[in-house]
Write a structure and sequence with these properties.
- The protein is of the alpha/beta class and 603 residues long.
- It has 2 domains: 302 residues, TIM Barrel, CATH 3.20.20.330; 220 residues, TIM Barrel (Alpha-Beta Barrel), CATH 3.20.20.220.
- The protein has 22 helices and 18 strands.
- The strands form 3 sheets. The chain has an 8-stranded parallel sheet. The protein has an 8-stranded parallel barrel with strand order 11-12-13-14-15-16-17-18, surrounded by 6 helices. A two-stranded antiparallel ribbon has the order 8-9.
- Helix 17 links the parallel strand 14 and strand 15.
- Helix 4 packs parallel to helix 6, helix 4 runs parallel beside helix 12 and helix 10 packs parallel to helix 11.
- The protein is elongated, with a radius of gyration of 28 Å.
- The N and C termini lie far apart (78 Å).
Length: 603
C-alpha cells in the first residue's frame, strides 16, 4: 500500500502525467472528439494512455474527466456519474500501487442563466470522487478561486482529501479573470482548504519560466507547475504541437529549481516528455523557495507577475464619487445610443441636459439585445463634444474576456472613470440562429475582473463602477445578499430599475437603511397609456401598479401624457428624496424635454 500523498511529498518531488486530451486526439486521429466519452466507449485507449505515463515515471495520474460536466458534454447527471466512475476505475486499475490518482475537474462555464449551478455540480462531482476513493481532487485550468474555495471547503467538511488547485495564465502572467499570478499566490496563502497551488496550461514552458522566476510563492502550500508543450500550429486542418521534449525539460529544470513540489505537463505533452522530466529532474525533494509570510505581503515591481493586493490609492479624486461625498443629490439621465450612424440629435440632447444641471449621462449597452452604437464609444463621443461626465453601461453578453479587457483599457486611456456593470439582456430568440450571447461571466464576475484591473493597472486613479438593483424582484434578503456580493467585488453604488409602487418604495427604504452603499433611484416618466401598458406587461422586473396605468387614458394627447408622467415622477421623487443618494432618469424615446417638468431638487 502506498503512503499518503502528503507523506510522499514530505520526501519527494511529485511528477505527474502529461496531457490526456491532445494525446488522445493524436492517437485516434480525431481532434474533434471529447476524450471523456472514451471512458465508456474506448476504455482500452484511456488505459493505454495512463499506463504509458506511469511506465514513463509519473507518480500521479489524473482521471480522464477534465471536461466531464453536464454543460460541456451535453449529458444528464446520471450519465455523467457513470462516466466519472468509469474514469476512476480505469485510472485506479492502471495505478494499482504504482501511482496516485487525482480526480480531475476542469472549469464549468457559468453564464447569467446558470449562475450558482456550477458550484452544485462541482460538489456533485467531488462526491463521486470521494465515493470512488481517489487520492486527491485536482481543480485545473481555472481563472479564479471563486468556486474553488466553496467547493474545497465542502470537500474538507466531509474528508481530509488532498486538494490541488491550478490556474491558467497568459503570457503576461494573468488568468482569464484578469488576476495576476502573484494575486493567485496571495489568495492561496489565505486558504486552509487547499494543499497545493500552481499553474497549468495556457502557455509553454518558456513563458511559464519567465513568470515563475519572478514570483513569491504561497506559504505552506505545495507548489505545482504543468505548462503546455508550447503553442499549437495548424497542419492539414489540425492543431498540432511540435515535438520539443528537450526544450520543454530545459525550462522545467529552471522552474523546478525555484522550489516546485509538483511538476508535469499539460496540452501537447506526451509520455516522452514525462520520461525526460524523470530522467533530468527526478523525485528528490525540492530546495527551499521564497514565500509570502501570510499570503498578504505586497510584492513590489512593475511586472504583472509581481503585482499584488494593491490597495487603491486615490491620488486623483473621482468627480462622480465626490458628488456623493458632498451630499449632493446626484442626477443621472440615461440616453439610448442610436441604431445607426446619425448621432447629431443625441449630442443636442446631451448639451441640453448639461444646460439644466444634469450631473452625468449614462448609455445603455445595446438594451434588449438589439444592436446600437457601442456604449463606451458613444460615451466618449458625447464627452468630447459636450464636456459632460459620462457612465457607459458594460454588459457581459457580447464580449469574451479578451475583448472585455481591451474595451476597459480603451475606455480608461480615453478618460472614462465610471461604469455601470450589468449582466445584460439576452439575445432575442428570433436572432439566436445567427447571433449568440457570450456571457463568459455574470455582472459579479465582471466586477471582480474590473476590481483586479484596478489593482493591477489603475491604482492611482481607479475605475469606479456600480451595479443594477431591482428592489421588487424576489425576496428582499436575497436582493441584499446579491448586493453584498457586488459590494465585495468592488461596486461603489447601485442604480435601480424604475420604482413605481408603494411596495417598491418601502423595500428601497429598507435596503438603503441596511446596506452601506450609495443608491440612485430609477425614475421613468411614462408618457402615454400605451407606454404605461407596454412597460407594465412587457418588462419583467418593472412593477407598474394598476393605479399608475389608470392615471392615463388612450385618448390623451402627447402633452397630456407627458404631464401625467412628470407629475407621477415628481410624486415619487418627493417620497424617496430623503433616503436615496440621487435619481437615475430613464426617459422614454429620449424625450429630454420631460426634464423641464420634473423638479429634480424636490424636497
Amino acid at each position: 500500500m502506498m503512503e499518503s500523498l502528503r507523506e510522499y511529498l514530505k520526501g519527494h518531488r511529485l511528477i505527474t502525467d502529461g496531457a490526456m486530451g491532445t494525446y488522445y486526439s493524436e492517437i485516434t486521429n480525431n481532434p474533434e472528439a471529447f476524450a471523456e466519452f472514451a471512458n465508456i466507449e474506448r476504455p482500452d485507449i484511456i488505459e493505454r494512455i495512463h499506463n504509458e505515463y506511469i511506465d514513463a515515471g509519473a507518480k500521479l495520474i489524473r482521471t480522464n474527466t477534465f471536461a466531464a460536466n453536464t454543460q460541456m458534454l451535453g449529458i444528464g447527471r446520471d450519465e455523467l456519474k457513470k462516466l466519472i466512475e468509469d474514469a476512476c476505475r480505469i485510472a485506479q486499475r492502471c495505478a494499482d500501487g504504482r501511482a496516485y490518482v487525482a480526480g480531475d475537474i476542469g472549469p464549468i462555464k457559468e453564464n447569467a442563466e446558470s449562475e450558482g449551478s456550477a458550484v452544485e455540480e462541482y460538489k456533485m462531482i467531488c462526491d463521486i470522487f470521494l465515493d470512488m476513493k481517489v487520492d486527491a481532487i485536482r481543480f485545473e485550468t481555472f481563472a479564479d478561486f471563486d468556486d474553488i474555495k466553496e467547493v474545497a471547503e465542502y470537500v474538507r467538511s466531509k474528508s481530509d482529501m488532498f486538494i490541488m488547485a491550478d490556474f491558467c495564465l497568459n503570457k503576461n502572467g494573468f488568468t482569464a479573470g484578469g488576476i495576476s499570478a502573484a494575486r493567485i499566490m496571495q489568495q492561496a496563502g489565505q486558504m486552509d482548504c487547499i494543499d497545493s497551488c500552481g499553474f497549468n496550461c495556457g502557455i509553454g514552458s518558456g513563458h511559464m519560466n519567465n513568470i515563475m522566476q519572478k514570483l513569491t510563492f504561497a506559504k505552506d502550500k505545495y507548489m505545482s507547475c504543468l505548462p503546455n508543450a508550447g503553442y499549437p500550429e495548424q497542419m492539414n486542418n489540425r492543431m498540432v504541437f511540435m515535438n520539443n521534449a528537450s526544450y520543454f525539460c530545459d525550462n522545467m529544470q529552471k522552474i523546478s529549481a525555484y522550489g516546485m513540489n509538483i511538476i508535469g505537463g499539460c496540452c501537447g505533452t506526451k509520455p516522452a516528455y514525462i520520461r525526460e522530466l524523470c530522467r533530468r529532474i527526478g523525485d528528490a525533494v525540492p530546495a527551499g523557495r521564497t514565500e509570502t509570510s501570510d499570503g498578504n505581503e505586497p510584492v513590489n515591481g512593475n511586472n504583472p507577475a509581481e503585482a499584488a493586493d494593491i490597495r487603491v490609492n486615490e491620488k486623483r479624486p473621482n468627480e462622480f464619487m465626490q458628488l456623493f461625498k458632498s451630499g449632493h443629490k446626484v442626477v443621472a439621465v440615461e440616453l439610448d445610443p442610436p441604431y445607426d450612424a446619425k448621432y447629431d440629435r443625441l449630442i443636442e440632447q446631451a448639451q441640453y441636459l448639461k444646460s439644466i444641471g444634469v450631473d452625468i449621462l449614462t448609455f445603455a449597452d445595446s438594451p434588449m439585445g438589439r444592436s446600437r452604437v457601442d456604449s463606451v464609444l458613444m460615451s466618449l463621443k458625447v464627452t468630447q463634444e459636450t464636456g459632460m461626465m459620462v457612465m457607459p453601461h458594460v454588459c457581459c453578453r457580447d464580449k469574451n474576456v479578451i475583448a472585455m479587457r481591451s474595451t476597459l483599457l480603451g475606455a480608461y486611456i480615453n478618460g472614462i472613470r465610471q461604469l455601470l456593470l450589468v449582466t445584460g439582456d439576452p439575445v432575442p430568440s428570433v436572432s439566436r440562429v445567427s447571433t449568440t450571447g457570450v456571457f463568459d461571466y455574470n455582472s459579479i464576475r465582471l466586477m471582480n475582473f474590473v476590481k483586479e484591473m484596478n489593482q493591477e493597472h489603475f491604482a492611482d486613479e481607479p475605475l469606479y463602477y456600480g451595479g443594477a438593483l431591482n428592489v421588487t424582484l424576489g425576496r428582499i434578503d436575497r436582493i441584499m445578499e446579491r448586493m453584498q456580493k457586488k459590494i465585495d467585488n468592488g461596486a461603489s453604488y447601485f442604480m435601480t430599475q424604475p420604482v413605481f409602487s408603494k411596495e417598491g418604495i418601502e423595500r428601497l427604504a429598507i435596503i438603503k437603511e441596511k446596506m452601506d452603499t450609495k443608491i440612485l433611484c430609477g425614475i421613468m416618466p411614462l408618457v402615454s397609456y400605451r407606454n404605461a401598458n407596454f412597460i407594465k406587461n412587457e418588462f419583467i422586473g418593472i412593477d407598474v401598479p394598476d393605479e399608475i396605468v389608470a392615471r392615463y387614458s388612450p385618448d390623451m394627447s402627447k402633452e397630456e401624457g407627458e404631464a401625467v408622467g412628470a407629475q407621477i415622477a415628481n410624486e415619487l421623487i418627493g417620497q424617496m428624496y430623503d433616503y436615496v443618494d440621487g435619481f437615475y432618469f430613464m426617459l422614454p424615446f429620449n424625450r429630454v424635454s420631460l426634464m423641464d417638468k420634473i423638479n429634480i431638487n424636490n424636497r
